[in-house]
Write a structure and sequence with these properties.
3 domains, nine-stranded mixed beta sheet, binds N-acetyl-beta-D-glucopyranosylamine, Rossmann fold, Pyridoxal_P_attach_site, glycogen phosphorylase activity, pyridoxal phosphate binding, 48% helix, Glycg_phsphrylas
Length: 868
């Protein structure tokens, strides 16, 4: 076939989105009596060929062998673990697709209201184990793979993590999808298909972090279904011309194609398999014919690569905004494609636009998808001829905004000239929204110019900037924080004026949660089985109603039960010790107290406090006599986490931790008393090994800075206790499990501003504030952990300014650590009781509860069981 292109048409305006309908979403035609007509061919032949879900072992081995032979074109002779993993994964994928098809078909038939979770990050980790657990087929696949000469656990270990996220925000999105499907909600996720996930972390000989790319798609990804038939055109740049009535025409610029990749999201013990749709970018035309004609082949090819660059890489920043044009384009590309797709689906119900919010709710995961607000306005006003006021009403009823941080450096602001360049039409719309909004403010508080300046969506300055959190707030029905304290701070600080304007009821809290499937059953099967036996409820029941953990509480007093419980922790610690030995060559004793701090490296999270505390402990032990040392409670301190590649101080902190670890581990006096480990390349899969093995975990942010934290929940759910500040979700955990079972320390949020003021205007030397800390700093400055000059910038942040209040909290931190040691050594039985009580009271922190709150209180969607 010869395709002809008319060169005169190239570069001209084309309709912005043309969606070719995919096979999903078609409905059967019906006869007059309502009977469905088989769409094509011989119905019997079709039905005989349709696959079910094999559940007996021989059908499963057949399915696996089929994929080895046909899909992979391999044989029993040349199959390694990776190949066997691929074959098993493909077979499980087939199972998922059966339910996925059915789920999507039933949604299309019944048209329930749907919710969409827009997130630039989905930190999924591995899929095989989770899919098997959710399908209830793990045992069968274990036997089947064994029959074929493989060990399922090894195959599970061959899978590469899908690291399409930075930290808590992205992992939360993944937990919410799992819970959405488990709670049988019509909930889809929308994100980007980054070709490179979060960088891999290596440690250089000098101890500093090195970043390597993560080309996770280099090995075939069985968990996605490419849908080359679902494509959407997205425009950037060009020119927007107003044509009256709030409308405009947007032409020219660059057009890029969004292609859908669908990731099935199975619910646990349900038929629901929801969808996560990830967009990939492709050049609109094979090449730019204009350049090609001119003989400029290089430029033609360049155009291609620039489209594909869009989804090349995940920005590696956590809680920090970067004003790069490519990032803005990623956001706009993803929002435009997702909205277009959502609208296409809405059009199938053939209802007036005013009813859009009765069929669609969209949750904005942080401000990253805020551009969806002007984009929906653009579609309604410019393309669908909806009057501005009606369009605004529809838009504000559709969106809901979750804020995940109050840190100023993380709040998104985009330079006006940049938006004007990349998205000229959206800038006009933002200005129009702002004008109408400020007029309403003026009506409410006439002549209050300060207030107008404060509340404007546009921040004055050079350049002007669009305040995305304000735009998201103005454009949404509800705004929520992610833990009580955080939601309170939002209302009192950054959104205070907006609370005055819109009223309190718009600003609510939904405390985060985690999925107990991955974060208990999957990562800690020993504990999960003991719980099942003890509370006498099947997993399929209690893993969906985590409040049933309460049933453990009476067993706290049962010494036989406690023994079993403690043994499981010990086994998990041995497992981690094995990992550390094999991968890092460090020997750790599993009878020591395991103290773990794993999270992104950030000054506000204060790994600094932990590392300084470790040095303090080291110095204290060094000063002891051998007899005294024998009485010390042995501790293994484990750190893990990545620093953003451009974050100098965070990287310096890693370097210091690694070198402290080296110094201490090389010191024979510390043997079996104090071991420090930095686990490189922290990931979801590593968390699954680390979390079940902790006795204590640290969540020690400066009060008021950690919006929620979610690993704190995971640790407690696995019988580890918290050492923490009165911050984020730590507070609610303590409320639930009883503050006797949490080790709290440090100043409270209320004190923070005054302390900062003091540091800035009335500084007192560290030597005076905390002699213990001063002694520690002196060791670093004296070169005990390597070149002192290298670490001086870190020491300086504490000596001067001390924005994160390390000096203020150091002494109470050391005290809290003493209490941990005492509690652990003095009365191990009492410790075990604390851990049992903690687990039994963690029911609140399931992401099932959280997602149901969003469903009921925000989206107004209903549970929609899928019948098969
Ligand atoms: C993070 C917070 C965490 C919180 C997660 C999930 C951002 C912007 N925020 O405290 O720092 O647990 O979001 O809500 O990544």
């Amino acid at each position: 076939m010869i395709t002809t292109i008319d060169p005169s048409k190239i570069g001209q305006a084309t309709p912005r989105r043309q969606h070719k309908r995919s096979a999903t979403g078609y409905l059967p035609a019906t006869l007059k009596d309502g009977k469905e007509i088989w769409p094509r061919g011989d119905e019997k032949a079709w039905k005989a060929g349709i696959r079910g879900i094999p559940t007996n072992v021989s059908d499963i081995t057949n399915a696996i062998v089929y994929h080895v032979q046909s899909t992979l074109a391999r044989q029993a002779y040349n199959l390694d673990n990776m190949g066997a993993y691929q074959a098993v994964a493909l077979s499980v994928r087939d199972d998922l697709i059966v339910k996925w098809n059915e789920t999507q078909m039933q949604y299309t038939r019944k048209q329930p209201k749907r919710a969409y979770y827009l997130s630039l990050e989905f930190l999924m980790g591995r899929t095989l184990d989770n899919a098997l657990l959710n399908l209830g087929l793990k045992q069968q696949y274990k036997t089947a793979t064994h029959k074929l000469g493989f060990n399922l656990e090894d195959l599970i270990d061959s899978e590469r993590d899908a690291a399409l996220g930075n930290g808590g925000l992205g992992r939360l999105a993944a937990c919410y999808l799992d819970s959405g499907a488990t709670m049988e909600l019509p909930l889809w996720g929308y994100g980007l298909r980054y070709h490179y996930g979060l960088f891999a972390q290596h440690i250089a000989p000098d101890g500093s972090q090195l970043e390597a790319p993560d080309p996770w798609l280099d090995t075939d990804n069985p968990w996605e279904i490419p849908r080359q038939d679902v494509t959407i055109d997205v425009r950037f740049y060009g020119h927007a011309e107003r044509i009256g009535n709030g409308k405009a025409v947007w032409t020219g610029g660059q057009e890029v194609l969004a292609v859908a990749y669908d990731v099935p999201i199975p619910g646990y013990a349900t038929n629901t398999v929801n969808n996560l749709r990830l967009w990939d970018a492709k050049p609109k035309r094979g090449f730019d014919l204009n350049s090609f004609n001119a003989g400029d082949y290089d430029r033609a090819i360049q155009e291609n690569s620039s489209a594909e660059t869009l989804t090349r890489v995940l920005y590696p920043n956590d809680n920090h905004m970067l004003g790069k044009e490519l990032r803005l384009k990623q956001q706009a590309f993803w929002c435009a494609a997702s909205l277009s797709d959502i609208i296409r689906r809405f059009k199938q119900v053939e209802k007036p636009w005013a009813e859009f919010p009765e069929y669609v709710s969209i949750q904005l995961n942080d401000t990253h998808p805020t551009i969806a607000i002007p984009e929906l306005m653009r579609i309604l006003v410019d393309e669908e001829d909806v009057p501005w006021a009606d369009a605004w009403d529809i838009t504000t009823k559709t969106f809901f905004y979750t804020n995940h941080t109050v840190l100023p450096e993380a709040l998104e602001k985009w330079a006006v000239p940049l938006i004007e360049h990349v998205l000229p039409r959206h800038l006009q719309i933002i200005y129009d929204i702002n004008a109408a909004f400020l007029q309403a403010v003026e009506r409410k508080w006439p002549n209050d110019r300060d207030r107008l300046t404060r509340m404007s969506l546009i921040q004055e300055g050079e350049p002007k900037q669009v305040r995305m959190a304000y735009l998201a707030t103005v454009g949404s029905t509800k705004v929520n924080g992610v833990a009580e304290l955080h939601s309170h701070l939002l209302r009192e600080t950054i959104l205070r004026d907006f609370v005055d304007f819109f009223g309190k009821s718009k600003f609510v809290n939904v405390t985060n949660g985690v999925t107990p499937r991955r974060w208990l059953d999957q990562c800690n099967p020993g504990l999960s089985n003991l719980i099942t036996d003890t509370i006498k409820k099947p997993k399929a029941v209690w893993l969906k109603d985590l409040t049933l953990l309460k049933g453990l509480e009476p067993f706290t007093e049962d010494p036989v039960f406690r023994k079993k419980w403690a043994l499981i922790k010990h086994t998990n610690k041995k497992h981690l010790a094995d990992y550390i030995k094999t991968h890092l060559g460090i020997t750790v004793n599993p009878t020591s107290l395991f103290d773990i701090m794993i999270k992104r490296i950030h000054e506000y999270k204060r790994q600094s406090l932990n590392l300084l505390g470790v040095i303090h402990r080291y110095l204290a032990i060094k000063a002891m006599t051998p007899a005294e040392r024998k009485k010390v409670n042995p501790r293994v301190v484990i750190f893990g986490g990545k620093a953003a590649p451009g974050y100098f101080m965070a990287k310096l902190i890693i370097r210091l931790i690694v070198n402290i670890a080296r110094t201490i581990d090389a010191d024979p006096d510390m043997k079996d008393i104090l071991t420090v480990v930095f686990v490189p390349d922290y990931s979801v899969s590593l968390a699954e090994i680390l979390i079940p093995a902790s006795d204590i975990s640290q969540h020690i942010s400066t009060a008021g800075t950690e919006a929620s934290g979610t690993s704190n929940m995971k640790f407690c759910l696995n019988g580890g206790l918290l050492l923490g500040t009165v911050d984020g979700a730590n507070i609610e955990i303590a409320e639930e499990v009883d503050s006797n079972n949490v080790f709290f320390f440090g100043h409270l949020t209320d004190a923070v501003e005054d302390l900062r003021h003091q540091h800035k205007y009335h500084p007192i030397a560290v030597e005076e504030r905390s002699p213990a800390l001063a002694a520690v700093l002196k060791e670093i400055e004296g070169g005990r952990f390597g070149d002192a000059g290298v670490y001086q910038p870190f020491v300086d942040t504490i000596r001067t300014g001390d924005y994160y209040l390390v000096t203020d909290d150091f002494d109470s931190y050391v005290e809290a650590n003493k209490m941990v040691d005492e509690a652990y050594v003095k009365d191990p039985e009492e410790w075990t009781k604390k851990t049992i009580l903690t687990v039994s009271r963690m029911g609140k922190f399931s992401s099932d509860r959280a997602i149901m709150t969003y469903a009921e209180e925000f989206w107004n969607i209903e549970q929609f069981p899928i019948k098969i």
